Amino acid sequence: EKNTDFKVNQEVDLLICGKSKLGFKAVINQTHLGLIHHSEVFKPIKLGQQLKGFIKQIRDDGKINIGFVLPDSQKLDDLAQRILDDLKENQGVSHMTDKTPPQEIYNKWNVSKASYKRALGTLYKKKLIEISKETIRLAIT
Questions:
Q1: How many CA atoms lie within 13 A of 70 on its CB side?
Q2: I need a labelling partner for 139 at 20 to 30 A (CA). Which of 28, 37, 89, 103 fits?
Q3: Separation CA 78–CA 83 (nearest Å)
Q4: How far apart are CA 20 and CA 14, in angstroms?
Q5: Which among 119, 125, 134 has a CA at the least distance from the CA of 86?
């Protein structure tokens, strides 16, 4: 039966309580069990660790998938603005491109590589940045 205690994208408290082939098991808000898939993990996680996360999916069988990165457009807009601000503070150049390792992107921006690439794409489509193999630059306007 479908779980109605939570909503997709709801922020929740997590307690890491186990590990499986698919990822980490976590107690959600001290009431339910959920799964954090390996693809959602960007930094080391330990048993007993307490974290914040988001409800990613509530499956038809009632199981809950958890994520750490909220995939909404507001967060993307915020990230795009942060990237622009960072470029302005660094002479209009960044060496963090779409080829940068996911861990480096997460360490700097606290987002997945996919979110970072989407934000770069948004900025590129708006002609605010130029992308080359080694750098991202503020577009000359």
A1: 17
A2: 103
A3: 9
A4: 16
A5: 119
Distance CA 20, CA 114 (A): 24
Q: Which of 68, 89, 66, 69 is CA-nearest to residue 79?
A: 69
What CATH number should be reported for the domain whose range is 73-138? 1.10.10.10
- What is the topology classification, in CATH, of domain 11-67? OB fold (Dihydrolipoamide Acetyltransferase, E2P) (2.40.50)
Is 38 in contact with 25 (CB distance < 8 Å)? no
Tokens representing residue 78 in the block: 């915020």
Distance of alpha carbon 75 from alpha carbon 89, whole angstroms: 21
- pLDDT reported for residue 138: 93
Sign of CA dihedral 110, 113, 118, 120: positive
Q: How many residues does the chain have?
A: 141
Fill in the DSSP letter of residue 40: G
Domain range summary for the chain, segments of one domain joined by +: 11-67, 73-138
Q: Which two structure tokens, joined as six digits, stand for 127?
A: 């002609």
pLDDT by residue (tens digit) across 67-116?
Answer: 886 655 556 678 898 999 999 999 999 999 989 999 999 999 988 899 99
Tokens coding 21:
């082939």
